[in-house]
Inverse folding.
């Protein structure tokens, strides 16, 4: 009867192990990258072309302005956001090392002295030096899941640092180009003021000779001040933009050494490559996927909390009532204990932990999809913006040429015909100034579109 009971117990135990092993097959499956968007249409109607990609160009070769390159170097050393990202990497690296240490046994040493008083024997002293160790056998891979999750966190922080660097380079370049554009607008406005100063003198002489009226002279003076009044706003924008760039560079607010807008060129062709390469190269996409991998591993680790854990522990040392006999062989003691622990009732903590992990994984999946869609949007928008800016630059050149002729011709007609008034000259000059400022905006749009495209494709961190 006793043998039969043992047989039934062993059979039930083996059957339980088989059921657990079968049910754990799902949680042993490795992570697989999900397909959440259609990569072939990620760029909308922008042709992907071949596999070449502007993001493969090192940023030092992309920009031709040596001053800009020096500013980017300064930002990479001193920018607070990048320093924070590097500190985050150190933190996750420590977490990774901690997860690796979980595979090794724990060891602790505890020397102790126990003193007891007795009416019969007086003081009794026990001296003890003991060491204890414990080791968990990772049967179901829970520790491996936690280790992989810690690795994913580290890689995610590394990708975050790359994303910060890529964004930092783009920000420095875009703000630098903005300052150059403001400088160019200041120069155009100052030249316009010089021209209108001389024009006021011309109109005054024409009035003295009864060629124009007093109203024309007043209009010319008002036209001069309309240009002058825009100078403070341009200078204010330059002042504030310099301070913004100084903050990014990690320096005190102040002036920034710079070149000129007309000297700016972008090296290399604007190839976007195929979407799959962009997704593999872009740091924030990498960051989002590592976060998703982390969620997957933590969900599996939470599932494995329902399974039994096998722990082996041992304790050994010396114990004696006389310290002189502490290390005698007769004072040695030790014990070894192996135990299998199956969670049964834990106040629902394991179940809630699993539900939280599954919710996190779902959130990370949706965030990953959102990053992919935003990436495609940025590439499509920046490429389209560059094409439009290039088209406008070509058209604007002809517009400015004809508007300059219009100003010259109208001014000559004002001198020799009575059918032309200063109002005609005023309109022509306003249109010319607007076109000249517009051409600066076109150049700025073209340069910034290239920078945004470069960042959108994952450039800047290599």
């Amino acid at each position: 009867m006793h043998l039969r009971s043992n047989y039934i117990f062993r059979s039930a135990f083996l059957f339980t192990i088989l059921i657990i092993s079968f049910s754990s097959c799902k949680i042993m499956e490795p992570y697989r990258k999900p397909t959440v968007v259609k990569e072939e249409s990620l760029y909308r109607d922008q042709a992907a072309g071949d596999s070449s990609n502007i993001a493969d160009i090192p940023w030092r070769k992309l920009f031709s302005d040596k001053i800009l390159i020096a500013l980017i170097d300064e930002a990479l050393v001193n920018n607070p956001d990048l320093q924070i990202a590097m500190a985050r990497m150190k933190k996750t690296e420590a977490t990774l090392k901690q997860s690796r240490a979980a595979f090794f046994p724990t060891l602790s040493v505890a020397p102790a002295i126990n003193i007891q008083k007795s009416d019969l024997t007086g003081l009794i002293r026990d001296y003890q030096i003991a060491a204890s160790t414990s080791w968990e056998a990772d049967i179901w891979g829970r520790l491996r899941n936690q280790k992989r999750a810690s690795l994913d966190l580290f890689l995610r922080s590394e990708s975050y640092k790359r994303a910060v660097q890529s964004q930092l380079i783009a920000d420095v370049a875009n703000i630098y180009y903005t300052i150059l554009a403001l400088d160019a607008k200041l120069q155009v406005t100052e030249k316009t003021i010089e021209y209108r100063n001389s024009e006021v003198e011309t109109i005054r002489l024409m009035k003295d000779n009864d060629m124009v009226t007093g109203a024309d002279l007043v209009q010319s003076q008002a036209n001069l001040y309309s240009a002058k009044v825009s100078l403070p706003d341009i200078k204010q924008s330059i002042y504030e933009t310099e301070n913004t760039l100084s903050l990014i560079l990690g320096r005190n607010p102040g002036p920034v050494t710079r070149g000129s807008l007309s000297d700016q060129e972008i090296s290399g062709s604007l190839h976007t490559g195929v979407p799959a390469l962009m997704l593999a190269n872009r740091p924030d996409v990498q960051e989002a996927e590592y976060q998703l991998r982390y969620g997957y591993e933590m969900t599996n680790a939470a599932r494995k909390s329902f399974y039994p854990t096998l722990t082996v522990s041992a304790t050994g040392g010396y114990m004696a009532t006389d310290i002189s006999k502490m290390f005698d062989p007769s004072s040695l003691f030790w014990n070894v204990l192996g135990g299998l622990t199956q969670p049964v009732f834990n106040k629902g903590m394991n179940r809630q932990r699993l539900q939280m992990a599954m919710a996190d994984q779902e959130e990370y999946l949706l965030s990953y999809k959102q990053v992919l869609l935003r990436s495609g949007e940025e590439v499509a928008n920046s490429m389209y913006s560059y094409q439009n800016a290039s088209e406008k630059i070509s058209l604007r050149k002809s517009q400015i040429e004809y508007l300059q002729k219009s100003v010259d011709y109208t001014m000559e007609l004002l001198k020799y015909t009575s059918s032309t008034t200063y109002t005609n000259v005023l309109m022509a000059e306003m249109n010319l100034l607007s076109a000249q400022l517009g051409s600066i905006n076109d150049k700025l749009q073209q340069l910034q579109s290239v920078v945004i495209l470069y960042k959108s494709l994952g450039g800047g961190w290599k």
Strands lie at 106-118, 122-137, 309-320, 332-341. The longest helix spans residues 349-416.
